[in-house]
Specification:
Blueprint (H helix, E strand, L loop, with lengths): L1 H87 L4 H10 L3 H9 L9 H4 L37 H5 L3 H7 L9
């Protein structure tokens, strides 16, 4: 009897293992279908991104082409105006101004290069002629506190505050009158 129970336990264990294996295989099959779906979505996203990149590259290539065409058109219009001005204007003033507009402006570039910056080394004789950059703070005297000080603007009053009503009555009448506002004058 003992041998038959061992065989029965082995067969039951084998059946239970087969059922568990079947269920595990079935659940992993659904995982592979999810993985296949995710792979398809990823491929679609890559295709969409590549299409977008191609559109952006095409856009910028077309924009560069149009800007170059615009520059060429501007040059053609300017040359047309210059040649027409030379033919139509007898005094040549308009033609000279149009030709001057086409020439590079070296004089302006040279004057801009002469202005020193803060990092340039300047001789002491010229240092007083260079304008200072604007300051973002108000200058103060040596004995004053700066605006970033913790006690800036906090000053104690010179007059002591009266502590009792008797002190209030002992004040001179002149100081009480000085503190009260004058009545408004009316013209009758």
């Amino acid at each position: 009897m003992e041998q038959s129970s061992v065989w029965i336990i082995g067969i039951v264990a084998l059946a239970i293992g087969a059922v568990i294996g079947y269920l595990m295989g079935r659940s992993s099959a659904s995982d592979t279908s999810q993985q296949d779906e995710l792979k398809k979505q990823l491929e679609a996203a890559h295709l969409e991104l590549n299409g977008y990149k191609e559109q952006v590259n095409g856009h910028f290539a077309r924009t560069a082409e149009l800007v170059n065409n615009l520059t060429e058109s501007y040059k053609d219009v300017h040359q047309h105006l210059a040649s027409s001005a030379q033919q139509l204007c007898k005094d040549g003033v308009a033609a000279q101004s149009l030709e001057a507009a086409m020439q590079p402006r070296l004089a302006e570039e040279e004057t801009e290069a002469d202005i020193p910056t803060i990092t340039d080394a300047v001789p002491n004789a010229q240092a007083s002629n260079i304008p200072e950059p604007p300051r973002d703070y108000a200058p103060k005297k040596d004995d004053e506190e700066g605006t970033l000080s913790e006690t800036y603007g906090l000053q104690e009053k010179a007059e002591p505050v009266p502590q009792s009503p008797a002190d209030l009555t002992s004040q001179p009448a002149d100081s009480a009158e000085a503190e009260s506002p004058e009545p408004a004058k009316t013209n009758v």
